[in-house]
Amino acid sequence: MSITIVKAGLQTTLQGAPYSGQRHIGMPAAGAADSLSLALANFLVGKPCSAIAIEITLTDAIFTINTPCAIAVVGGAEYVHINGAERPRHQTLKVGAGDTLHIGPSRSGCRTYVAISSHIDASRLLGGQSTYLGAALGGFHGRAFRTADILEFSSNAATTDIARSTPAKLRLHYSDDHVLRVTPGPEAIIGHEAILDDLCEQTYTVGARANRMGLALEGKRLTADEVANMPSAAVFPGTIQKPPTGQPYLLGPDAQTTGGYPRIAQVIRADRHLIGQLGTGARIQFVPTTPERAAQIYQEKLSLLSSWLGHIRLW
């Protein structure tokens, strides 16, 4: 029971829930870069929202289905073709043995998720299965897929009697223009409040240095100050640092656990999944909010999503 990778694409990996409770040993969160798209895809094939699925970055990918199953595709892909025929995203799709699945490149957004009803065999450690490329851990032998790889399923029968379609109000709009709400970082709070105002008064563009670890942002340089460097302190996905160049750096899911640059802002949890759809050239407007309002926004978003997805959390 398996799928054969015919064309792997730029970076196609197995991703699901992040690694939780392991940052004290230097283990990044990893996991799906866009947790909401992952959840929507998994629900369409009857799986838990954080289950392992295929994450495709930017370019197209092609698979041969060797075992009948149900699949669902959610994300920035321009198209989904099964045996050359275009099929919809955000819908349960039945595929049979010998079918060819072609996922188009991301024209807007950056990543696409392919959920599969069969149970995917993936490496497990530290309580998780997501791929952390930096240490070659988890997922498919700790690495991205290559042409001719075979992704195995367990012998458990696949769920194929599901027929779901994501409600229109929950379908994400993929664009190259993004608004990310942020709360002040520790170094912005302690006597440097103006730096958050500087960050939010302009639009930034994602530069060429963009991957799962983080994204270098291009735009007006932030003002230098006496905390340009500091002792290493805890950082998390969504932390915005200010390196000595003054150009902000936005941390992604594979970000290190500590850093020595000032932490000027933190993307709120409700918006953090959008970081996974930021590719080179994407434009970002940061909008300040308070920690109290950020918590309310998160609960409001979970309430909306749970009406369709049931229990869900975003990371």
Word description of this protein:
With 315 residues, the chain is α+β, with helices and mostly antiparallel strands. The chain folds into two domains: 2-170, no CATH class; 177-309, Beta Barrel (Cyclophilin). It contains four helices and 20 strands. The strands form four sheets. The protein has a seven-stranded mixed beta barrel with strand order 12-19-16-17-14-13-20. The longest helix has 19 residues, at 291-309.
Brief sketch in words of this structure:
With 315 residues, the protein is of the alpha+beta class. It is 13% helix and 29% strand. It folds into 2 domains: 2-170, no CATH class; 177-309, Cyclophilin-like (Cyclophilin, Beta Barrel).
Furnish the topology, listing elements before pairings.
Elements: E1 2-7, E2 11-15, H1 35-44, E3 53-57, E4 61-65, E5 69-75, E6 80-82, E7 85-87, E8 93-95, E9 100-103, E10 111-116, E11 150-152, E12 177-184, H2 186-189, H3 194-200, E13 203-210, E14 214-218, E15 233-234, E16 239-241, E17 249-251, E18 258-259, E19 263-267, E20 283-288, H4 291-309
Parallel strand pairs: 12-20
Antiparallel strand pairs: 1-4, 1-11, 2-3, 3-10, 4-9, 5-8, 5-10, 6-7, 6-9, 12-19, 13-14, 13-20, 14-17, 15-18, 16-17, 16-19
Euclidean distance between termini CA atoms? 31 Å
Mean pLDDT: 93
Estimate the helix proportion, in percent. Answer: 10-25%
> Strand percentage, roughly?
25-35%
Largest sheet: 7 strands, mixed, barrel
| Silhouette | globular
Tally of DSSP helical segments: 4
Poorly predicted parts: none
